[in-house]
Structures are given as structure tokens and as C-alpha cells.
Design brief:
Layout (H helix, E strand, L loop, with lengths): L1 H24 L1 H27 L4 H47 L5 H4 L5 H4 L3 H24 L1 H36 L4 H39 L5 H11 L8 H14 L2 H26 L8 H15 L3 H22 L11 E2 L2 E2 L1 H7 L18
Antiparallel strand pairs: 1-2
Length: 386
């Protein structure tokens, strides 16, 4: 018995050690492989349909699916990226001289400030406002220039990652179910918990792609069109930026178009202000409320705070792919804690419903009443929990 325990312990240690070395060795390919798994799961119904139509030839069906991705997604996306980069360079080149003139002659902003309401009240703070505005504009310009300097490197990495992803997708489409069953077999969880995690992963992935990408693309297109009609330089670039910003709940595209609207108002371009207000504010701003319930439904089952911090944290950790991966990780975090609560239900105390539909229940209200506006006393850890 002791020898068997030693053998299993050594085997487990070797499994962990060799797996860690292997994963570290292929770390640069993990993200393309993961994205290949996501897109393969989403496109598996189309692959099965094509396989049935061409007489069960799975390999040919996989090739057709991959060719469709290249023609319908990657090729247009490459063209869009080229246009965005070109307009970004043009915007940065036009902004830089203006920023330098603004910094060298800060009094030039006075003409714009005079158009603001309550200008006389702001007059004592003019120097501070000019200093802070110059700092903000300078930082934005520096950020654009620094970001553009790494475009070439990012483009090469994106092309290489796309090739790896498509290559892996070919095998995932043909033998993905076998690999999934093998992974679930080695995962020491109950079958119902594995299936629950898998269902949540699939539903959140589809909801994120449908909600984030489709709504973001539509909002970016409308806002980019508004920028073009308002005469703002680089509408494709700004439309793409707003498509990305649309993932942020509550703020979204307003992070870009509201400052642009203010600048147009200071310049006296009230036609442009009206265009941005109608298209970006009224039309694009309400698309999220109209389309998201129909596209996403209740698939995510997450509060907006989890979506917000999951998305922002995902972008911080994974880069642009964090738009997709962040909400998935947040959903899996919620799901794994739900599974934990179910599995260890007999060990966890029953806290009861503190609040009902009509407010606090009787015991909670009785506790809160004497302490309203006062700090809650510390619990005595030796006292029984009631």
C-alpha cells in the first residue's frame, strides 16, 4: 500500500513537472490554439452540415470552412486594418503640429474658452485649465505616436498567430470531439460539473461574440459615418476606436464622440454637433439596449459589473483578445463558485434570506434598526451562528 502511494505520488509529480515544462515551451502558441478551439466550437455545426453535403469527407469540409474564414473574415479585416493604420498615421501627423503650437502658445485656447458659458467664472482658473489641457492633449498625441511605432511588430505577430490558428482549426474541426472527451476524462470533476462548465463556456463565448462584435461593429460604423459627415479627419480610424470602446458598459462610444462634440461646439461647427448628437448619441447609443437582448438574451447571466471588470481586466492581461476572453474568464469564475457552493452545500452555513421583495426580513430589520448610521459591532467568533 505504501509503495503504491509512493508510485502514484511520483507519477503525479512527473505529470505536473513535464506538463509545466511543455506548456511553458509552447506558451507563445497557446493563445492561437485557444482561439482555434473557440472558433472551431462555434463553426462545428457548419462543418457537420458541409460534411453531410459532400458525402462525409471531413477533411475537405474543414478546408472549405477555413477558406471561408479567410475570404469572409480575415481578408476584409486585413483591408480594414490597413485603412485604419493609414488614417491613424494621418491623424497623428496632423495632431502633432497642433499640439506643439498649443504647448508653445497656450493663450491660443483663450479664443475657444470665450465661447464657453460662464467664461467669466472660469477666468480666474484659466492658467490651470490651459496647463492641464495641454498636458492631456500632449499625452494623447504621444500615446498615438508610440502606439503606431509598434504597428509593424503587431502585424507580423497577428499574421503568424492567424496561420497557427487556422492550421490548428483544421484538426479541431475533424477530431475536436475526441480531444474534448479526452480532456474531460482527465479532469477529476463530476460529469455534471464538467458539463456545466462546458455549457457556460460555450454560451458565454457565443454571447460575447454575438453581442460584442456585432453591436460593436454596427456602433463603430454609425459613429464613423457621423464623424465623416461632421468633417472630422480619419473617420474609419475613429469608428474602429469606438467599435472597441463600445464594449465598456455605460460609457462605450461616448468616450470618443463626446470630446469630439465639445471640440466642434468650441469651433462653432453646430451642424457637426447636431450630426454627432443624433447619430452617435440617439441612434448608436440606443442600439445596445435594442439589439443586445435579442442577440445575447440571458446567455451570459452576468451583472454589468462583472462584464465591465472582466472586459477591462481581460484587455489588460490578454490584449485586444481580452474583449472575448475577459468575460469568459469572469463567467467561469462565477460558475466554479456556484459549483463549489453546490458540492460543499452540507458544510456551508445557512445564512437565510436577509432581504425579501419588500425589504429586509424581520430578523435583519431588527438587527439593522438599532445600528442605523452606526458601525456594525464585530462578531464574537466563539458565539454560535444563528
Amino acid at each position: 500500500m505504501k509503495r503504491e502511494l509512493i508510485n502514484k505520488s511520483v507519477l503525479l509529480a512527473l505529470v505536473l513537472l513535464i506538463s509545466a515544462v511543455f506548456l511553458d515551451m509552447i506558451a507563445q502558441f497557446l493563445m492561437p490554439m485557444f482561439m482555434a478551439g473557440i472558433f472551431s466550437a462555434i463553426l462545428s455545426p457548419a462543418h457537420r452540415w458541409l460534411t453531410a453535403k459532400i458525402g462525409g469527407r471531413e477533411n475537405i469540409a474543414s478546408v472549405l470552412v477555413i477558406v471561408g474564414i479567410v475570404l469572409l473574415v480575415l481578408a476584409p479585416l486585413s483591408i480594414l486594418i490597413g485603412v485604419v493604420v493609414g488614417q491613424a498615421i494621418s491623424v497623428s501627423q496632423s495632431v502633432t503640429p497642433w499640439v506643439q503650437a498649443f504647448i508653445n502658445e497656450p493663450t491660443a485656447i483663450t479664443a475657444y474658452m470665450e465661447k464657453l458659458p460662464y467664461y467669466q467664472d472660469l477666468l480666474p482658473y484659466r492658467a490651470v485649465i490651459i496647463e492641464k489641457a495641454g498636458l492631456v492633449v500632449g499625452n494623447i498625441s504621444s500615446f498615438l505616436i508610440d502606439s503606431l511605432s509598434s504597428v509593424t511588430k503587431l502585424t507580423v505577430n497577428a499574421v503568424f498567430s492567424s496561420i497557427i490558428m487556422l492550421y490548428v482549426m483544421f484538426y479541431f474541426l475533424t477530431m475536436g470531439e475526441v480531444l474534448l472527451l479526452k480532456i474531460l476524462y482527465f479532469l477529476p470533476l463530476h460529469d455534471r460539473d464538467e458539463r456545466r462548465l462546458l455549457r457556460r463556456f460555450t454560451s458565454v463565448t457565443k454571447a460575447t461574440l454575438k453581442g460584442t462584435l456585432i453591436i460593436g461593429a454596427i456602433q463603430g460604423f454609425i459613429c464613423g459615418l457621423a464623424f465623416a459627415l461632421a468633417g472630422i479627419q480619419g473617420p474609419v480610424f475613429w469608428g474602429t476606436v469606438m467599435a472597441v470602446m463600445s464594449i465598456i458598459p455605460a460609457f462605450g462610444t461616448a468616450i470618443v464622440w463626446i470630446p469630439a462634440l465639445i471640440i466642434l461646439a468650441l469651433q462653432g461647427n453646430f451642424l457637426g454637433v447636431t450630426i454627432l448628437g443624433v447619430l452617435c448619441g440617439a441612434v448608436a447609443g440606443n442600439l445596445d439596449n435594442i439589439l443586445r437582448p435579442r442577440l445575447v438574451g440571458k446567455d451570459t447571466e452576468m451583472h454589468d459589473l462583472f462584464v465591465l471588470f472582466g472586459t477591462l481586466g481581460g484587455i489588460s492581461m490578454f490584449g485586444i483578445l481580452g474583449i472575448i476572453l475577459g468575460p469568459i474568464v469572469a463567467a467561469l469564475f462565477i460558475t466554479i463558485w456556484e459549483i463549489y457552493g453546490k458540492v460543499f452545500e452540507s458544510y456551508l452555513p445557512d445564512v437565510g434570506p436577509f432581504f425579501t421583495a419588500n425589504g429586509p426580513d424581520d430578523s435583519t430589520a431588527e438587527f439593522l434598526a438599532p445600528h442605523a448610521g452606526k458601525p456594525v459591532p464585530e462578531e464574537d467568533e466563539t458565539a454560535p451562528f444563528t
